Amino acid sequence: MPDFAFASCLPGIESAVKLDVASRRPELKFAYSRPGLLTFKSPRALLPEDPPGSVFARVWGRSVGAASDPAAAAIQLGHVGATRVHVFARDPDAAIDLTPWLSLGPGGPALDGEVVADVIVSPEGPAWLGVHRHEPWRSPHPGGGFPVDVPEDAPSRAYAKIEEAIAWARLPVAEGQRALEIGAAPGGAVLALARRGVAVWGVDTGELAPNVLALPNVTHIAKKVGALRWEEMPGKIDWLLLDVNLAPQVALHEVARLMPRLRDSLRGAVFTLKMNDWAFVAELPRLVERIREMGFRDVRLRHLPSNRREVCAVALM
Ligand SMILES: C[S@@+](CC[C@H](N)C(=O)[O-])C[C@H]1O[C@@H](n2cnc3c(N)ncnc32)[C@H](O)[C@@H]1O
Description:
This protein is an alpha/beta fold. Helix content is 23%, strand content 26%.
């Protein structure tokens, strides 16, 4: 029986979702899109645990259909077996009152295995309804969010990016560990890790913000990664971060050169892969392969809430 899948995404990157789904799930045919929401027709019935068809999807699940008001939504969602209802705006930047929809059921973070009804609200037109099952490597929060309290003294949004990556991948980042970040200035991610008690070395010709540089567990290596010599790197690094504004293949080539020095102690890496154009989407499988060739056993991609034209890759040893 035909069915429909839905994907929510950052408004403006619908093309990336379409291209990604076309290559990963060719049986799904694009059906409909609005800014921040797409649907795809499936030749077969879909389950709530249908695996995400795109790394650019914030939420992915089985589409239930449109509902003009909360009463209609309650009837349509009556059959889906959800124990949790996630109400969120189709465009997170749009001013929209979600209150009328919140009475549809308990909100809050989903537990592993829970079936979640998604109610995607837009300022114009009906709400879109869907259902997904929460599992590791999905967000437990409405709309695929990973809420982060970014402190006022954070010098960049990379503070949120690294915290979102840690939450998404449940990375065991702990006090006393060590991290090396390539492309560290002005220091948002360095600050986040240092606040967690991690000793951080930041490689960048740019300056770290004074409040970050002043931290006792932060060291700035003022070099381009290509000029970094092995003996300048600290021994026993637990976490490697890469966030340079270079083409991903070029950036990963630089990382590969450092891997023999890092491999023995490394637990994992967080790579921010910059996306210059939509052709980047077709390159993703090759980039994942390139990361695996460096010795990482598990590589996952996700367009995190703070990502714009870039994708996060978490790689575990
Ligand atoms: C998006 S910013 C990094 C933000 C940073 N991760 C933070 O937490 O604030 C990109 C950085 O890459 C650096 N970069 C570009 N090419 C580089 C290279 N070859 N080696 C080291 N850093 C480089 C730039 O100087 C810039 O500071």
